[in-house]
Amino acid sequence: MPLTDQHKFGMQLAHMSRGWRAELDRRLAGLNLSQARWLVLLHLARFDEAPTQRELAQSVGVEGPTLARLLDSLETQGLVRRQAVLEDRRAKKILLCPPAKPLIDQIETIANALRAELFVGVDEEELRVCMRVHARILANLEKS
């Protein structure tokens, strides 16, 4: 049975996503952070206010227990700390510690360099069309 363009698109998208993340992980290997941990730091850095553990888990796309283990290791490294929420004793806010900032800056620098390399030869209009297609597919996913 021949593959449809939609099938090829899905396979290509999955391959690109895995490849992009694997290459970024390879370039970040010298920072002594697993892919899961640098991903948590990047998501945490993008919040305007310290998120709760639940909010961070939703942002990263992992289950609570998985995030708890990642936060344990990041806490041991002195990169994050948990703070009790006064209104809800069960909830914890996750705060970045000062040593995390230069590390996040390094992660961003390496990620930006890779992104620039990967988008060589892709013009703005091609990128806008691709983003519209992805947005439409994401919207359809959210309906299902």
TrEMBL record:
<dbReference type="InterPro" id="IPR000835">
    <property type="entry name" value="HTH_MarR-typ"/>
</dbReference>
<protein>
    <submittedName>
        <fullName>Transcriptional regulator SlyA</fullName>
    </submittedName>
</protein>
<keyword id="KW-0805">Transcription regulation</keyword>
<dbReference type="Pfam" id="PF12802">
    <property type="entry name" value="MarR_2"/>
</dbReference>
<feature type="domain" description="HTH marR-type">
    <location>
        <begin position="6"/>
        <end position="139"/>
    </location>
</feature>
<keyword id="KW-0804">Transcription</keyword>
<dbReference type="InterPro" id="IPR036388">
    <property type="entry name" value="WH-like_DNA-bd_sf"/>
</dbReference>
<dbReference type="InterPro" id="IPR036390">
    <property type="entry name" value="WH_DNA-bd_sf"/>
</dbReference>
<dbReference type="GO" id="GO:0003677">
    <property type="term" value="F:DNA binding"/>
</dbReference>
<dbReference type="GO" id="GO:0003700">
    <property type="term" value="F:DNA-binding transcription factor activity"/>
</dbReference>
<keyword id="KW-0238">DNA-binding</keyword>
